[in-house]
Amino acid sequence: MEAPAMEPGEMEAMLRAAAEFAVRLMYLGWTKLLPHAWTKYFLRDMVHHFCRAMAFIQAGLLANSKNIRQLACKAMIHLLDKAGDSAVVVDTFVQHNLYPLLINCLTEGDEEISAISLDGIKRLAQIPKGIEIIFPPNGQGSVQLDKVAAQSSSMARIRILSLIAKLFAVSTYTATAIFDSNLLSLFEDEIKDRRDMLKTLSALEVLYELVEHPHSNIFLLKTNLLQLIVDVINDSSADSIVRSRATLISGRLLSSADAFMAIDQNCVTNLLLAIDKLLKMEESQNTDETESALEALGLIGTNSSNAARHVVEASFGRQGRGKQLAALHAFGSICGVDRREDQIKLDNQAEERLKRLVYTTARNSPKLTPSALLLSVLQQDPDIRIAGYRVISGLVAREWCLMEVCSKSDIINLVTDPKMETTKLGMEARHDCCVAISKALSSSHLLHEPSLSELIGKLNEAVKRGPYLSERRRVEPQPVVVPAERF
C-alpha cells in the first residue's frame, strides 16, 4: 500500500530530525551507518516531495564527507528512477544547480564517488529532456565539458572521456549531441600528445570502449581520429601495448561495410600499410601486437593489400598457437563467414587474389595443397579446430575450395564425426561447417557427381542429426523382472 503524502511541515521536521541524527552519527564516528539511516528517513517519502528532496541532495553533494556525497549521488539516482515527470527533473536540476555538482564529483572525487556520479549523469541522459541539461538546445549550458576538460588534470580529463563514452552509448541522439558539441576532439587532443604513454593508453582504452557501439563509426570517421590512430601504429617509439590497442580500434572502426563509404580511401590504404609494416617488423615479435594486427585485419575483412598475406600464411603456420588462432579467426572473417549470405564473396579481383594467396601458401608449405592445409588445421587442438571449421564454412562458398574440401575424404570424415567435439561451441561450429558444405554442394555441379554420392550422404545425415546428437543414441536403462527363487 502506498505511503500517504506528507505535509510540508512534516517533511521539514523529518529533514531536521534526520540531519541531527546524521550529525550525531558523524560525531560518534559511525559514518558507515549514514547510508542506512538516510535511506530510512529520506528515501522512503522523497518520491512524493521531489523538489525538497533535490534541495537535500544538493546539500549532500556539497558535503565534505565522502559517505554523504556517495549517498547523495545514490539518492539522486533512486529519485531519477522513480520520477515520471521529465519536466520536473529538468526544472529541479537547474534550480538546484545539481549537474555542475555532479561534474565536480566526477572530476574531483575519489574513484568511488567519480563512478557513482558518472552513473547518475548517464541516468539523467536516459530521461526524456534530461539530456537537455547536459546539452542545452542553445549550446550555452552552465557546464561545457570541453572547457572543464581544458582546465582539469590528466586524470579528470580521462574521466570526462569516460563520461562521453557512456553518454555516446545511450542513444543515437546523445551521440549526435556529442558530435555536434565537438567533444570527440577531446580524444584527438589526448591521443595526439603522446609524450605521456599512460595518458595516451588511457585515452585509447576509453576510445576502444566507445567504438564497440554499432553507430560509432558514423561519427568517428568524420573526425581525424583514424588518421591519428594510423600515426600511433606507425610510431616505432610508442609502447607495444599502445600500438596494439590502436590497431584493434582501427579494425573496429572499419568493421562495417558502410565505413568504407564514409572515409577517404587513402586513409584506409595508409592504415593497411601501417598494419603490414607492423607485421613485417622482424625485430618486434611481440605476441599481443601481432595478434592485435591479425584481428584488426579480420575485422576490416579485406584482402585488398599485402597485409592479408600475413593472415593466410599465419593461419597455416606453426610459429605460435596464439598467432595461428588469431589468424584463423581473421581469415574466417575475410572469407565472409560473418557477412550475410549474399555478401560472402568479394568482387572478382579480390576473389582471384584470395584464391591465389591460398594456393601460393599451400605450394610454399610441406602440405602442397589447400585441402591438406585445411586438414592439418582440423587435426590440431579443439580451439584451433573450431577456428578451422569457421574458415571452411566461409571458404566453401567458392567453387575451387569446395572442390578441394570434397577431394579430401578425411576432411568430410572429421566434420561429420558427431564424437569429434565435446563442447557446445565445438559441436555447433562443426555442425555449421557441415551445413555450409552441404549448402554449397546443393548449388554446385558437384552435387550430381557419382563419386561424391557417399560423401553427400554423410553430410546430409550430419546436417539432419543436428549439432548435439551423437551417432549412436544413448540406450535408456530397461527394467528387468527377475522371479523370486523358490526354496
From TrEMBL:
GO cellular component terms listed in the entry, alphabetical order:
cytosol
Q: Which SUPFAM superfamilies match?
A: ARM repeat (SSF48371)
Q: Name one GO biological process term.
A: proteasome assembly
Report which superkingdom the organism of origin falls in: Eukaryota
Q: PANTHER family per the record?
A: 26S PROTEASOME NON-ATPASE REGULATORY SUBUNIT 5, 26S PROTEASOME NON-ATPASE REGULATORY SUBUNIT 5-RELATED
Record's protein name: ARM repeat superfamily protein
